[in-house]
Request: fold
Amino acid sequence: MDKLNNILQTIREDDFVEYYLFPRISAPDESRQQEVLDSALAVANQVVKQQCQDYLWHKDPFKLTTRTHLSNFLTHIDGKEEELPPHLYGVSHYGDNIEDEWFIVFLLREITKQIPGLIARVYDSDGEFLLIEAADYLPQWASPDTCENRVYIYEGNIHLLPPKDLENPIVSVEEALQQIWSSPVTAPIDIQNCILNRISNFPHKIKDTQHFATVYVPTAVAAILQSQPSFISAAVQAFINRDTVDMKACRAMKYFPPEQRVKTRVKFTKCLYAMLLHSKYVPEKKIGWNLPAVGTDEYRQHLLGVKVACGFEILAAQAKPPQDIEGDRGWMQYLTSLKDKGYFSGLLEGSQKYNSRFNKAKEYYTEHKDTMHYSPALGRDILHLLRTCEINFEKLQLESENLAPDDDDSWLDMSPEELDNMLQERYGQKKVIKLNQSTGASNFAEKVNKFLTHVSDIEGAEFPCHNDIATPPYKPPRPKKGVSFAQDANKNESKVKFDPDSFASAIHNMLNFVIPEDDSWDLESDSDMSEYEDDNVAEDNLNDTGKTGKMQRYMEEMDAELSSTTMGQSFEKKKDDARGFEDIESFQPVDIDMNALKNILESYKAQMGDAGPSSNMLGPMGVHLDPKQ
Reply:
């Protein structure tokens, strides 16, 4: 039953970031714990207030609450649940703006620097996303299974706790906290730098994420935005995610009619502005949305204003409680999430056990809907402001005549070259390799061979261009040589023993057409090759080198014959290397490396800068071609 209650409490959308702050509390008395938590919360709120003065949240703001008793459960990967020590807790939804998530990491770092002994933990729907950011620099032991509860922020630094036993890597939060307090283990410097570089531009970056624009909105909307500028985020979200029910409200415009409108300057985030600008919507003229000519600056101001006003209208309409919970859209979303999380455990809908859990979920939602993400509380706040705030049309009209110009929105337009450069700088290799006929072929072949011989495991390839930054203190045992299936008599399980060296050798043999020394290549048997048995050269060679030498000689003669055909003439030849073919006039062997390079370059050229087989194959090997060559 505790597990079911935990599901009811933790249902949320996937765009969440969850954070815990653990102060060092030694007193078991709950009143003393509350005192320590309240003190830490006061300092944390002060830091947040100082850093978030000009920040505009996309969805949910950063907010902390205290948890004194062990009411929260943390579920591990193996399904076990753990009770957490007293802490400050928060969860925020960041929507389409990932910058909110990293700004929260910045805030947590600043808070841990201000409160001695405070340890922060943060993760999202992907798990330990701090390690995902530093994926190129992780030690070999790091994986989703081994890193759970091992990443923390303490005194402004990232701490990564290595497991003592890879067979049993699970560590409790309490054990991890005690280990950090007693003997801190900071993450390697490259992991530190990778994560800290991601948040290094805060708080100065806040202004770069904002965009100011003029919109033509109903007078009440302008008054509300002057009183609560942060409401623009919810209004944009409501308009972008509108449905048929919301469109009915937009056709009525009961709360924000368009008859009286003014220009006002609104602060967006660049993400919100782009979402609103590119959301297609044709307002109905019969409602009163008379727009200027398309293509003018005033047309954009009017159209943006229509969308903003519709967003506020939707929020206000959602504040009206439905007559029945079955008509509550928040309840329907909550119920769908419960089903996805397995709350009903496959029970037949309508059965006694199903109805029992259904009624329990309905009761929980009714009691807590004002504190949940589906809450209509913001709509009620808008209605309250609509009734209480001063709406002075003459004052707003006068202010609209002296508005500052809009910010330049050329950042919305990005050329393909700029996008490629941005992606290359963020994710790609820093060095572009230029290939030419003199040295390119050999270098290319060397990289391909290096890639083929590089060690990899069942979890994926480790590319040759990747350098291990941190040597793991614990390595998994190396598998025994040979590839075979072995039956475990005790566990009755089949196991695979894999030898990477043997596998790499087999691949090379296939690519180089090396003949295995076994009886499967019996040249004495009846086959299509029997017509060559009377060849004098072949008979003489058979006595000297055996079957392998005979096949090699056949292959050489076939190469010589093919060289005179149209297909043979299409290959690049080695100009100064005809060893082994002195008896064949004007024969030049094929340059394998040069032909491979030539075909790759032709394929890359045919891609015309788009993704294709050549770039997809060469990229992981560390080879990036210059598009100008």
Remarks:
- DSSP finds 22 helices and 14 strands in the chain.
